[in-house]
Design a protein that fits this description.
The complex is a heterodimer of chains A (348) and B (504). Chain A is globular, with a radius of gyration of 21 Å. Chain A is an all-alpha fold and 348 residues long. Chain A contains 16 helices and no strands. Chain B is built from 15 helices and 17 strands. In chain B, a hairpin with an 8-residue loop joins strand 5 (65-68) and strand 6. In chain B, helix 2 (129-138) runs antiparallel to helix 3 (151-159), helix 4 (179-186) packs parallel to helix 6 and helix 5 crosses helix 8 (276-288). Chain B is globular and about 110 Å long. The termini of chain B are far apart. Classes of the chains: A mainly alpha (348), B alpha/beta (504). At the A-B interface, helix 1 of A face strand 15, strand 16, helix 10, helix 13 and helix 14 of B.
Amino acid sequence: MEFTRREAPYGTPARSVPNMMLEVLAALVPAAAAHVWFFGPGFVFNLLVAILFCVGAEAATMRLRGRNPEEALSDFTAVVTAALLAFCLPSLTPWWVTATASLFAIVVAKHLFGGVGFNIFNPAMAGYVVVLVAFPIQMNLWVAPRMGDIDYEYLGVFETLAFTLTGALPESTTYDQVSRATPLDLMQSGLNQMRMVTEIRALPVMGDYAGKGWEWIGNFVALGGLWLLFRKIIRWHIPVAVLAGLLIPATVSYLLSPGTLPGPGFHLFAGASILCAFFIATDPVSAATSTTGRLVYGAGIGVSIYAIRTWGSYADGVAFAVLLMNLAVPAIDRLTRPRIVGHGRGDR
Amino acid sequence: MTAPTYDLGKLHGGLRLEANKTKSTSAPIYEAPVPAQLVLPLAQHAGEPADPVVGIGEQVLKGQLIAAAYGAMGVPVHASSSGTVVAIEPWPVSSRYGENAPCIVINCDGEDRPADTEKPAGPVSRMPPALLRQRILEGGIAGLGGAVFPTAQKLIQASGCELDYLILNGVECEPYISCDDMLMRERADAIVGGGQILMQALGIESCHVVVESDKPEALHALGDAIAAAEDTRLILKQVPTIYPSGGEDQLVQLVTNREVPSGGLPTDVACVVQNVGTAAAVYDWILEGEPLISRITTVTGDGVRSPQNLRARIGTTIADLVAFAGGYTDRATQLIVGGPMTGKSMTTDRVPLVKASNCILVLSEPPSTGVTRTCIRCGECAEVCPVLLLPQQLHWYACADDEDELRRHGLTDCIECGCCDLVCPSHIALTARFRQAKARIRELADEKARAERARRRFEAREERIENERRERERQLEAQKSHAKRAGPEAIAEILRRKRREEKD
């Protein structure tokens, strides 16, 4: 009898990249629901625009590269990039801003480097940073959370959609009426005005730790992250290192100067810290690859977030911190190679 | 009784695989019949092929030497049954994935007449170790765990080293394979006896018999056999069921917490590892006078009608063995000699059973793995690598054909266990890629060596020509100065001679 020849081992891997990406997306669903609950339907429109442009750009670039677009589209990485972008963008974002971020993320940050697996920068963060720098006014249009202060103008579904499509608010409505400074902005500007932390924290929008609504979204993101850990889609090293890198300096400095510096609770729940720890920094392609390397990489991101928030001019530093550490990955990989069994501690 | 689990060393990574062994362990070991034809490859061990000592048409007896050990790593081959040598010709063999290699083909007469075997004159415990090692060489014994390293040579190499432990490997961690498990259940006394002989051949006083925790019957049988032997030098150990804890270096690490140095041998950390099957084969040869002419093999998989363990003659073709095990099912599409992780895939079942064949695995078409995607550096492969390599980085450098980085990242330390393949979400055939890269590195090293030899030859030639030229110049110079000293008379004489020569 004749048989087909194969290469050992003969088993079939249980997991695949598309399944992993779908699980990541599923893990983001509770946080997405919380986002819509607190900040209105803008998130959904941003997400749709981001998916449209990310997937479209992926297909177009694959075609330009002379490859079959299905190869890239079938792994859902472009959708994950779009979802992460939607989480970073303010709920009122004109479509062209989202489109710019998406195009830059996919075309420049991903495909110019060779597509998935070869990109040195986290595509979502690269795209986000471009619009953060290019459209500072639009990137400030955060609405107040639903459980925030009372004199807040609620925008309906259609008004939000209209804004997303045209960038114009309904007549007789001003930006000031619909948008509110984020807790991070409030903290930064408050501290710049020489206010005490306790004073700033007393503002109604600040909530228990770092802003009403924001805290809840943080909880749901963490829930999704824990699910990914449980499913072993991600490993603990990067999340733990990011949070430790952020919270240890935050705690120490808070203990030294509680009046002028926000505490660890604020740093944890403000901005995108938790999202970064579980969903952004854990992008394996642009992260360091050995376990030790991932601890270093994560800690670097955490410390950088703290540094940018404390001394930088941007209120949140997640995107910059991630891109900065992306650059350090080759060096980290080189320096943290594990000792191979059978080799002395010294020889590498 | 249950043996204590000694978790001295710890293995990094590894996989808990579905064992798939119960089908083949539910019945005792069956004796496979002597086939009509035996095909005995000359190279069944890791070393130079044996040298045939029989001619075509010659009658041979069961256990008769038919090919003598050749070279420093040679192992002899014996006839597995009586009959007539009909050919010495190329035949498909499993060690070369079904490609041809020289074999001795015997048509059996079915009488199974044994050759005269010399049994030891005195008690084995009086035999000097060196003699015992020589005797083991004559028995054609090679490691039955699958690597078929010549047993005697291993003992000879080890006897020159400081040794602490002999480790008898009954771990058998690869799925489907259960031949060692069944051997331990049914012939624990032979394993213990073999262990004692091996200890004597090595001149050491300590032997660990190591069994995986998923083989309670084997553990029990070995415990009884050791108790019956009343030998305190033998210690039974149990290790957790994790693939690949049965790899030689991995087992040493697990049992003694010592790491075999890169490129080294277990003797570098004062250990010698032998498979339990090898120990039993040594026992059969030294005490019963039967050379290695049969072995237990697991015939299993969903492509075989009745999976079982067989004691079969070396040289029986796999087609014969599968036929004895009820034949193929309709789903059979893959034939693997060895286990599902490291076994060799065959294109034909004409290949004979050899000393290395611990398992004949017939499988149905595997579910499609889908497309291979690019590596996303998730690092799951590094999590499971038992030697702490970074397969994701090795893959990267293998794609780039970067020899220096491949070496730096320990390509040559890869044991090809296949764990990384099974966890890769991009479905990259990592192990196959590393095998290729290793072959490529060897090729490059050969090329370099060849180039070096050619360079040296060229330089030697240049030097020779230069020396000859110098020598000629020196002679010319000498003649000139001589002529100068001798004056015009001598020059005239030389010219006359020259003219005479030209005329002739």
